[in-house]
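Quick note —
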Amino acid sequence: MTPSPASPPSTKASDGLAAVLAFGDSLTWGRDPVSGGRHALSDRWPTVLAAGLPGVEVIAEGLRGRMTAFDQTAGAADMNGARILPVLLHSHAPLDLVIVMLGTNDIYYGQMPERVGDGYVRIAEVIRGHGYRLDDYQPPVILFVAPPPIVIGADPRATDEMVDRSHRVTAFIREAAAEAQVAFFDAGIVAQSSPLDSTHMDVAATRALGEALRPVVSGMLAARAAQGRG
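Predicted structure written out below.
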């Protein structure tokens, strides 16, 4: 049955769940700096986020090595986030919210902070411009999350200059959020990278991030639902 043109935009899937896509890199995949493997499912920040939001499905889409909108030619897969994103948007639609947390790999592999901001803006353009091909559907709202800065530690490639760029990138991601008119959250306020490998979050940090994002995500979903009813 085709919805009436007067019907409000649909904000939930047919099962009634609000859908959130967590789009990121190994920090979202759940890299464990202690073991070098993967955190337990229950400890990964998308799982922790979902545990505090009844009626919300959080889809974890973390790829180790992923960058915002740039190629990593020696990567084991396509690491260009902006290029692969349309496939994921189409696969997981309808979505209510997309959380984007990228940038660590951009900095690690030599991109300048301002270019990371450009990558975030491009990702917002992809999300809003995708042809979802669903009746009465508005593109998902967007949350940019700046990752925790890189730290000096066991990784010999983590130089002082790289650490400095990783700190400066937060401001450029914030500016990108303002330019794209999307929400922003600084993960570095609640979570830090582990010195065991210089770039990834330990169990306490990844859980802290998931918990800190709950009120932010809850508020954004409530606002979207209210807009749909309006």
